[in-house]
Each structure stands twice: as structure tokens, then as C-alpha cells.
Design brief:
Elements (H helix, E strand, L loop, with lengths): L1 E9 L2 E7 L4 E6 L5 H11 L15 E9 L5 H8 L8 E9 L4 E5 L2 E3 L1 H11 E4 L1 H8 L1 H12 L2 H48 L5 H13 L1 H16 L6 H18 L4 H27 L4 H21 L3 H19 L1 H47 L6 E12 L2 E10 L7 E2 H4 L2 H14 L8 E5 L7 H14 L4 E5 L3 H4 L4 E10 L2 E9 L1 H13 L4 H12 L1
Parallel strand pairs: 3-13, 3-14, 8-12, 12-13
Antiparallel strand pairs: 1-2, 1-4, 4-5, 5-6, 6-7, 9-10, 10-11, 14-15
Helix pairs in contact: 5-13, 6-12, 6-13, 7-11, 8-10, 9-10, 11-12, 13-15, 15-16, 18-19
């Protein structure tokens, strides 16, 4: 419930504080006095978009503060807990600051939030019925929302939404699989060719580096053979003795000397070890020379192999390891394609199960809507009769249609305002005044199921008067027993029924125009009711106003 509204520097409002109570309250005032401005300020609190031109001329910013109370286990409490904005005292403060440059700040219980979040919360706090809201009632989604609010529990709506989303997810999965399969079919020949090419090469990591070294060695084989041969010749000798023979003689001589002098023992051992090592080197050089023998065909074969590896690296690389990895990837893609049939069958099974669950929820939603439509028709018709539309007919058509996020039905409100008229869609046959009464009749029917505490009616009295206006006033008064009802009105019959009465006035001070609002009672209220009745404050109007207030 709205407890307090503070407005500063908003259009014509310099500063005002509005203390609100429960029950039925009205706001009246001359045309142009600022009633719509007050409604706009409240709209900011409910998350509407802000414009820079709402900031009062000469000021830096407009500020609107509101204080609400709410009950435990309500949608408001659940929302605040979900977003970690709750207050232990079940109190909700909202601030909206609009700067002259158009920037806007939204604050809930001391924490800055997005406008979208504030707008969502606003839908739980205040239900606004205005000419704009009447327009929403003309749309199919607005009519569906009214019926669903009346007919469906939150759990039923949630179950349907989850079932619909699950079916859509399964549809998307199956569609994606089939699309991927079609795409892969076109690529399969190419992927298979590439894999065959890579597998045929029988690649080994590092093979290209080994081949490069081998070809480098082969291309230098003559030089290598000459140098290694010279080295071996120096070690083994030819016609003359070589280094090994000389070392052998040196070893023999040192051994003889060692027999006479023990201090030569270590040197003798070291020389003998060196002799053995050099002889082993000579044998290795001989083996190396043997390995240098190659055929022309071997050179061609290795060159062709390296050329193949270089081509594969250029095509799939840049490294041989990358080529091998690409082959593994192609193999996995082919295996995945081969499993498409199995994966598609599983996706189709899940879709069938999701469709079955959705069908169950569709049947339940449709049944509940049909049942709810019948009850809402009866209650709305009863209220319309009380509102002076005694010969009206009202029907809610619930026609099965393709399931969507909002349900499996097309909802249409049908009305014939007078006896003998052809029944037609509300959007085509209802006048402005009739729309106002239909809106109020629906609000009265939704009293129990509507969880929003505060109901604001702006211009609900448009196009009506006389006895019908009195009936509208009685219904608003009845709504006020279960809700906080605020009505902006020009009709005395409605204003006289209110528990609280506020007037909006406009004044000029120092060449500046100001709008203000104040609670009135006693003689002030009598005077205002008289003004609404006849536009003047003559004795007859004042007497009539007093009688209306005594009822």
C-alpha cells in the first residue's frame, strides 16, 4: 500500500508531500491544475521512462520518493528477497531522481537498481487503470492477462511455461542436429578425402626433421667421406704406420718403464685407455664410411617423402603435429556424422516426451481458462448491470490455437452494449465510457485474485454521469474495502463516496506557476463537491453537496 509520496521540482510541482491511507481516496481539481502531473510522478516511481523536460525550469533535478508497506508472503516480499532488497520492517522505499540532462537514477531501499527492475516491481505495487490501460484492454494480450489473473494459479502458469520452454528446447536441439547433418553431408566427401590423404601418408611426429637431416647428410656425402677417410687413414695408417700403431708402441714402452718405476703406473694406464678409445673411434669411422654408401633411388625416395610432408604441412599444417591433429579431428567428425542417426533418434524421443507433457499442460490451461471465463463472464455482467449497463451482454471466447509462450488459446472479449445489438470484439464496438465501466467491472471481479494492493483509476468516469456515475462510485467504494483505491475524478458522485479527498490547485507566485495537493475535509470538501456539481458554490449546490456527503 502507498503510504507516502514526496515530489520535488517535477514540472509545476515545487514541493509536495502526500500522506495516504487505505480505503477509497479521490483526487479532484480544475482542468489543468496538475492531476495528470501527479499521475506522471507516480509513474516514475513505478518504473516508467523519464524525460528531461519533467525537471522544473531552473532546477538541476526532479526527485520523487515513495514509501510503501507490504504483507508477508506476498509477491512484493518474494520479489525483494529474490533481488536481496527486502526490509525487516516490511517497508519499501523507492526514489527516482531525474537530472536536467535526462539521466535517471532508480533506488530501492537504499540500493541503486535498473529501471527495468523497478518497472517489474511497480507492476506488483500499483495497478493503474487509465485511458492508456483501457487501450491495453483492447489488445489480445491485455485480455488474456485479465483472464489468466482470474483463472490460473501461479503454479499452473509456471508449469505451462516450463513445459513450453522444454518443448521449444527439444525442437531447437532436433532442428540443430538435422541442420548440422545436412551441412556435414555436403562436407563429408571432402573430409573423407582429407582423412584418407593424411592416413595414407602414415605420418610420424618429427619425421620431417629426421628426413631433412638425412638429405643434408646425403648431399654432403662426398665431402664427409673424404674427411672421415683421411681421419681414419691418419689413425690406421697405410703404407706407413698410423697413430694407432705409434700409440701401441708408446704403450709398450711405457709399460716397460713402469716395471722399473712405480710412479709411471697411472700414466701407463691412461695411455693404454686412450689407445683403446682411439681404436674404437677408428672402428666407428669405418662404420660411418660404410653407411655413406647410398643409391640414387634412395635419394629420390627420401626427397619425394620430404616433399610429400611439406605439401601436407602447407595444406593442413603448419607443423607435422598439426597435420596429425587435423587427421584426428576429421576422424572424429566422420564418427560423429555416423552417430547422427542415433543422436537424432534420441532427440526425437525427448521431443515426443516434451510434447506429451506440453499437451497435458495445454489441456489443463485451456480447461481452467474456459471454467474461469464462465465465472468471470457472470461476475462482470453482474457488475455491468450495477454500473448501468443493464442490457449489455459480455462473453469471453476461449478458442484453442497453436501453443505459444502465453498459452494454447486465443482470448477475445466480446460485448454488445445494448439489447438487439450484434455482439462484437470489445476493441470494435465499445465506446470510451463503456470501456471505463467494463474496466471497473473486471477490476471488481478480480478483487479476490488480484494481488496488487493499490488500484489507481484515472478518468474511469470518462463519458458517464447521473445514475451510472453513482453506480461507479459504489463499486469503487466496495473495492476500497479490500484494496487501497485512488481515483482521479471530475464527478461529484464519485468524490462524495471517498474516505479521503485530495484537491489539486494551481497558483502563480512571482511570475512562476505552482501546483499543489492537499487533503480536504469539512467545509472545504463541501465546497469542492459543490464545484464538481455545478461549477459554482451557490447555496443550492452547497446544500446538495452536504446531502451527498451525509449518505
Amino acid at each position: 500500500m502507498l503510504e507516502r509520496l514526496e515530489v520535488r521540482n517535477y514540472v509545476l510541482i515545487s514541493s509536495l508531500v502526500l500522506e495516504m491511507r487505505g480505503g477509497f481516496s479521490v483526487i479532484t481539481g480544475e482542468t489543468g491544475s496538475g492531476k495528470s502531473i501527479l499521475l506522471g510522478a507516480l509513474g516514475l516511481i513505478l518504473g516508467e521512462r523519464a524525460r528531461a523536460d519533467i525537471v522544473r525550469e531552473g532546477e538541476k533535478e526532479a526527485v520523487v520518493n515513495a514509501l510503501f508497506s507490504y504483507e508477508r508472503n506476498s509477491r512484493v516480499e518474494a520479489f525483494l528477497k529474490e533481488h536481496e532488497l527486502e526490509d525487516e520492517e516490511l517497508s519499501l522505499s523507492i526514489q527516482r531522481v531525474v537530472r536536467a540532462n535526462g539521466r535517471s537514477i532508480c533506488n530501492i531501499n537504499g540500493l541503486n537498481v535498473t529501471r527495468e527492475l523497478l518497472e517489474e516491481l511497480g507492476g506488483y505495487l500499483v495497478d493503474v487503470s487509465s485511458q492508456h490501460a483501457h487501450q491495453s484492454l483492447l489488445r489480445a494480450d491485455g485480455q488474456r492477462h485479465v483472464l489468466d489473473t482470474y483463472s490460473l494459479s501461479a503454479e499452473e502458469r509456471l508449469r505451462y511455461t516450463e513445459a513450453y520452454q522444454k518443448r521449444r528446447e527439444c525442437e531447437n536441439e532436433l532442428s540443430s542436429l538435422k541442420s548440422e547433418q545436412e551441412k556435414r553431408e555436403g562436407e563429408l566427401d571432402y573430409i573423407s578425402f582429407c582423412l584418407k590423404e593424411i592416413e595414407k601418408a602414415n605420418l610420424t611426429e618429427g619425421e620431417d626433421e629426421v628426413l631433412s637431416e638425412e638429405l643434408k647428410r646425403i648431399s654432403s656425402s662426398e665431402f664427409l667421406a673424404q674427411q672421415v677417410s683421411d681421419a681414419q687413414q691418419s689413425l690406421r695408417g697405410g703404407m706407413e704406420s698410423g697413430a694407432i700403431d705409434e700409440l701401441s708402441r708408446a704403450v709398450s714402452s711405457l709399460k716397460k718403464a713402469f716395471s722399473k718405476d712405480e710412479s709411471l703406473k697411472e700414466l701407463s694406464a691412461r695411455l693404454e685407455s686412450a689407445s683403446i678409445e682411439i681404436e674404437d673411434i677408428s672402428d666407428s669411422l669405418r662404420d660411418y664410411l660404410s653407411s655413406l654408401t647410398f643409391s640414387e633411388s634412395e635419394l629420390e625416395e627420401k626427397s619425394a617423402r620430404l616433399a610429400l610432408l611439406q605439401r601436407l604441412k602447407k595444406k593442413y599444417g603448419p607443423s607435422l603435429e598439426n597435420v596429425i591433429e587435423k587427421g584426428e579431428k576429421y576422424r572424429e567428425e566422420i564418427e560423429a556424422y555416423e552417430s547422427f542417426e542415433e543422436r537424432t533418434a534420441e532427440a526425437e524421443r525427448r521431443l515426443a516426451e516434451a510434447q506429451k507433457n506440453l499437451d497435458i499442460e495445454c489441456d489443463n490451461i485451456h480447461r481452467r481458462r474456459v471454467e474461469g471465463a464462465e465465472r468471470l463472464e457472470r461476475e462482470t455482467l453482474e457488475n455491468l448491470k450495477l454500473l448501468g449497463m443493464v442490457n449489455a451482454s459480455f462473453r469471453i471466447a476461449v478458442e484453442p490455437s497453436r501453443p505459444s509462450m502465453s498459452g494454447p488459446d486465443t482470448i477475445t472479449f466480446l460485448i454488445a452494449a445494448n439489447r438487439g445489438e450484434k455482439e462484437g470484439p470489445l476493441s470494435q464496438v465499445a465506446s470510451g465510457g463503456e470501456l471505463s465501466r467494463v474496466m471497473l467491472a473486471l477490476k471488481c471481479a478480480l478483487t479476490v485474485s488480484d494481488e496488487v494492493d493499490t488500484l489507481l483509476f484515472d478518468e474511469v468516469d470518462a463519458g458517464i454521469g447521473g445514475q451510472v456515475a453513482s453506480c461507479v462510485a459504489e463499486r469503487l467504494e466496495a473495492l476500497g474495502r479490500n484494496h487501497q483505491v485512488i481515483a482521479i475524478t471530475h464527478l461529484a458522485q464519485i468524490a462524495a463516496k471517498a474516505d479521503d479527498h485530495f484537491t489539486v490547485t494551481k497558483s502563480v507566485e512571482n511570475e512562476r506557476t505552482f501546483s499543489n495537493i492537499s487533503r480536504i475535509s469539512g467545509s472545504e470538501r463541501v465546497t469542492e463537491i459543490a464545484r464538481l456539481l455545478s461549477g459554482d458554490c451557490e447555496k443550492i449546490s452547497l446544500d446538495h453537496a452536504r446531502r451527498m456527503l451525509r449518505r
